[in-house]
Amino acid sequence: MEQLRLKKGFIIDMDGVIYHGNRLLPGVKDFVNWLYEEQKEFLFLTNASNSSTKELQIKLARMGMEVDESHFYTSALATAKFISNQSPGSSAYVIGAPGLLNALYDAGITINDIDPEYVVIGESSTYNYDSITKAVRLVNNGAKLIGTNPDLTGPTTDGIVPACRAFVAPIELTTGKTAYYVGKPNPLMMRTGLKMLGVHSNEAAIIGDRMDTDIVAGIESGLDTVLVLSGVSSRETVRDFPYRPRLILDGVGDIANK
Fold first, then answer.
1. pLDDT at position 233, please?
2. Based on C-alpha coordinates, what's the Rg of the chain?
3. Average pLDDT of the segment spanning 74-97
4. Where is the domain boundary, 181, 210, 240?
5. Contacts for 85 with CB less than 8 Å, ≥ 6 apart
6. Which range, of 2-11, 20-29, 200-209, 214-223, averages the lowest pLDDT?
7. In terms of domains, do 43 and 88 share one?
8. In sequence order, which residues have a C-beta less than 8 Å from that of residue 70 and are 6 or more positions away?
9. Measured over all CA atoms, what is the biggest interatomic distance in the chain, rounded to whole angstroms?
10. Active-site residues: which are they?
11. Residue-wise pLDDT tens digits, 142-167
């Protein structure tokens, strides 16, 4: 634990680590206060694409935590950055929430449901048969399929719910095309996070609740790895993976409470 506390930078997942839905998890305020008191560099790096960084900041503020907007980065922003670097000024058909649409707009990517270069899928409450059918047709016509993140499920106050990869799966299966996923554990998103922190990978740690995205991302990027049991993964499911985190904690509050 002392080795972890000496790290200069922290990349922290949000869903299942900081909150479930609109409920702040135990020990989170103590942990964030500790980050500030110890003058740590930290970044909330989330695979969720439905909210903007401002909305995430406001969400934490409603829960009683004031954190500057610069401490947030989402898979929506990473996806927009990836597409704008690959094909500046391109267009996309999007199944996703306003956070994703706004990120794409801001990156100069226009929305197009006729002949887009990309089909981009994120989390969405408007996901339906018609939107899947249109996405399938566009991919079959040559559009490249992008998923904002590879999360199959996500934690909520009511239990586990489908996430991005579950929404992309019917399109992949129907078209025979495999999506490119931009979010964790993609090194593109991790490198951006480290650059925003301004620290080297061996001076940073990643804290997450998922073995299949957070922990593998940390291992492959050279960060110290901490799994918290407040979200998706459990001590039992850890055994299903050929890799393991260096530390397993009940929650982030364990880091602040010596």
1. 87
2. 18
3. 97
4. 181
5. none
6. 20-29
7. no
8. none
9. 58
10. 13, 15
11. 999 999 999 988 777 777 788 999 99
Strand order in the sheet with 91-95: 110-111, 91-95, 118-121, 144-147, 180-181
Amino acid at residue number 87? S
Mean pLDDT of 63-68: 94
- Cβ neighbours of residue 40 closer than 8 Å, sequence gap 6 or more: 7, 8, 9, 10, 34
Six token digits for residue 196:
């925003």
Q: Give start and end residues of each alpha helix (H) in the chain.
A: 2-5, 28-37, 53-62, 75-86, 98-106, 129-140, 164-175, 187-197, 216-221, 235-238, 253-256
Q: Residue 231: pLDDT band by 50, 70, 90 thresholds? A: confident
CATH number at residue 174: 3.40.50.1000
Has this prediction a pTM greater than 0.90? yes
Looking from the CA of 205 toward its CB, the CA atoms found within 13 Å total 23
Number of separate helices (H) and strands (E) present in the chain = 11, 15
Amino acid at position 208, single letter: G
**Is the bond into 185 cis (omega within 30 degrees of 0)?**
yes
Using 50, 70 and 90 to split pLDDT, how confident is the model at 258? low
Whether residue 124 sits in one domain with residue 202: no
- Is 67 a domain residue? no
What's the number of domains the chain is made of? 2
Question: How high does pLDDT run on average in the chain?
Answer: 95
Q: Indicate whether 206 and 231 sit together in one domain.
A: yes
